[in-house]
Amino acid sequence: MAAVKDAVLERAVDLAREVAVEIAEEPEHVGEYLGAVREAERLVSHRFACTARGYRGWAWTVTVARVPRGRTATVCEAELLPGEDAILARTWVPWSERLRPGDIGPGDVLPFRPDDPRLEPGFTPTGDPEVDEVAIDELALARVRVLSPQGRDEAAERWYRGSRGPTAPGAVASSAACMTCGFLVPLQGSLGTLFGVCANEWSPDDGKVVSLDHGCGAHSETDVDPAPTEWPAPDPLLDENAVEVVAVEPSAAAEAPPVDAPADEPSSDAPTAEVTTTEVPAAEVPAAEVPAAEVPAAEVTTTEVPAAGEPAPEPQAEEPASEQAADGPSDDAERTPDGP
């Protein structure tokens, strides 16, 4: 049901302006009159423009009312309210929900969350030394609260999808993964199957959790590829002023004393005896004319080997027996009568 027009309240404009000027810091911050709004029966709000810097679109609003059958307006409340085109801040969010990772600085403290789903109660000692030793000493579960499966999964997802996972630009450009690097310190537990801690001071991830398939240019087993060049290879530099002294050990053959050859044996430098053998062809000697006894035998010429230090004698040429047989029969053969 719409509010009924109220002449007494709508005429209380001067009263409303006085109240607006009173609550404003400066009188000039109260601008022109923007009109009246009927809120309910016997309840009207008067609006004035706000001219203060930073409050464009805002309006001073003064609400007045009257009692039934009354003729006097009374101020109910006065405030500064935004209009349709006013500059407003973002919707208010609780501080615990507004905080983001990385906002905590030195000296800042987060409020305690007793129902944090990322945590669960820690291990309670049982009194059994074997069980307690494993849970407390090896697994470090003797804390009030420890990481829950949800908290562990959220951390693994955040680390793996973050800047130290396999999809980071440095990991894509690297030639080897962190799992083969000597500077990787593996984690314990289920997280150790995917993550480790970098311990290389030259790496951009030094002291941070990295995935095993992450990588960077500071890998312990990689090297810089040689850059190709069009310049010719330089000639080797020789130091001609330096003398290198090399000690040569004598061999066993050089240390052995020389052995003198016997005087009666020819030396290896003497010429070898030459043997000349001349054979007489049987076809050149007539078998009927020349008796077998008168045919000269093959002559053998032997060259004597001189002793060491003596000059070798010149060989004497002898007429071959074949030439003697070719000259004809001897004088005795010529004197042989042809007949009786």
TrEMBL record:
Pfam families: DUF3027. Residues 252-340 are annotated as: Disordered. Residues 268-311 have a biased composition (Low complexity). It comes from the Bacteria. This is DUF3027 domain-containing protein. The lineage of its organism: Bacteria, Bacillati, Actinomycetota, Actinomycetes, Micrococcales.
